[in-house]
Amino acid sequence: MERYLAYSGKQRSRIQIAFYGGNFLGLAPAAIRSLLSVAEGFVKSGMVDGIRFSTRPDTVDTERLDMIAPYSVQTVELGAQSMQNTVLERSGRGHSLQDTISAVDLLRQRAYEIGLQLMPGLPGESRAGCFRSAGKAAELRPGFVRLYPAVVLAGSPMAAWYKAGDYTPLSLSDCLEQLKQLVLFFSRRQIPIIRIGLQAAETPGAGNQILAGPRHPALGHRVHCELFFDMARLLLSSNGGDLTARTFDVHPRSVSRLRGLRNENLMRLGNVYGTRDFQTRSDAELPLDGIRLAGTGKMLTYDDLQCDIY
Q1: What is the extent of the structural domain holding 131?
Q2: Per-residue pLDDT tens for 148-158?
Q3: What's residue 206's pLDDT?
Q4: Which of 30, 206, 232, 253 would you call most buried, defined as having the most Cβ atoms within 10 angstroms of its Cβ?
Q5: How many domains does the chain have?
């Protein structure tokens, strides 16, 4: 923490000390108090703004919340993973949908910022089931969500199911299609998605223990690239096939999303329309999810794409 703070600039955004990678409120009370006490020292010194942690929904109760009340905890993330009891049971999660609902209610009573972590592709979850789970999560009005598609880790019970043929993880293409719909769904409800997929550093064994599943080094970016490709196709189609206009305007931060990884989207458009002369321009006045076909006045955002989740 001291090393990071030494490099943080004066214009930094909010800084929180985060306890991740485990079930924080499931630790022994003495361990929780010890960790929070160290973090609290940084808050009181003015070096950081607050504390956040992730925990299982079934560890959130009045007794534990009373215990952490003296500390500057601002954000609590719940590892809900699914909002379907059948999926939770089959996956051996050990908690229920009602546990998540109750945890959100208790946290909201105490004015914590609440995040939900969802894991598409768990055993027993269909595409329709994933979308129902998203709908139930949105009903709880979380401040944000994280989407961590399920992958098979070596040595896990899921690995045994996979090897026995009892579980088939999502393919990358199927996962991308589901994630695209989830992004559209939560975007329409102004619920931010702050992370899609694990970072390489978060994956055990530097990433070499994943046996199967939708693994990609930049999964979230890939999802947004696919959405921008869909919007570009829709814009060109709405222009009646006229390829006179071949320049797209996007926000500066979305240029890479439109161009795709290694300019893949521009090459795909070229393959579809028989021309390689597609160009991109930056326009900071456009929304992050906006794209405009230059010279036509036609603009689309994610809200213009079809969402299959209601």
Answers
A1: 2-215
A2: 999 999 999 99
A3: 44
A4: 232
A5: 2
